[in-house]
Specification:
Blueprint lengths: L1 H12 L2 H22 L4 H6 L5 H28 L1 H7 L2 H5 L1 H13 L3 H7 L3 H26 L5 H24 L3
Length: 180
């Protein structure tokens, strides 16, 4: 819902070229999430409620490690695809590819968190966390677009948000399940 409202506002703030660039970033983002996420967190909805806390430790540990590896792979893959992205999409994207790739990598790494919370029966906490995180992304995107009129700069602000989200996910997982 916020992405729809975000699009309506951004189309009025950014120039046609900058808005098109922003949409190309999100085309890459959606493709990377779909490809690198691999549905890892969907299995949590099945296994976590059926396992005891002790039995779910190795499962969650593996999911956290696999998600982190998927995030690293997505980061490296986007950076390695810089030339084809510049040729087939837009050369402007490649000028600011590092913060975008980092944003995607940390988002892929922490994408399972909401499903983990739902599997633990913390649906309200999952909704509140998602609303706050995506609301912050919405607010930052509109603020940066309004002040800079530059779509590429947005990911310099969104990247640290994704890093903080990933760190919160790791801290929560370690505190709750006590990985060794």
């Amino acid at each position: 819902m916020l992405r729809i409202i975000n699009a309506i506002i951004l189309v009025r703030i950014l120039t046609q070229t900058e808005y098109g660039l922003y949409r190309q970033y999100y085309l890459l983002f959606d493709t990377a999430i779909m490809f690198f996420w691999m549905g890892l967190s969907s299995s949590m909805l099945y296994f976590i409620p059926r396992l005891s806390k002790e039995q779910s430790k190795p499962f969650l540990s593996q999911t956290l490690i696999l998600s982190s590896v998927a995030g690293i792979v997505s980061f490296v893959a986007i950076l390695c695809a810089q030339r084809p992205i510049g040729i087939y999409l837009n050369a402007e994207i490649t000028r600011h590819l590092f913060p975008f790739a980092a944003f995607v990598g940390f988002t892929v790494s922490s994408y399972f968190f909401e499903n983990l919370l739902i599997a633990e029966g913390k649906t309200i906490f999952s909704v509140v966390f998602s609303f706050l995180y995506y609301g912050l992304i919405f607010f930052c995107t509109i603020l940066i677009a309004t002040t800079t009129k530059n779509a590429s700069v947005i990911f310099y602000v969104l990247m640290p948000l994704a890093v903080v989200r990933y760190l919160l996910v790791v801290i929560y997982s370690v505190a709750k399940y006590g990985f060794t």
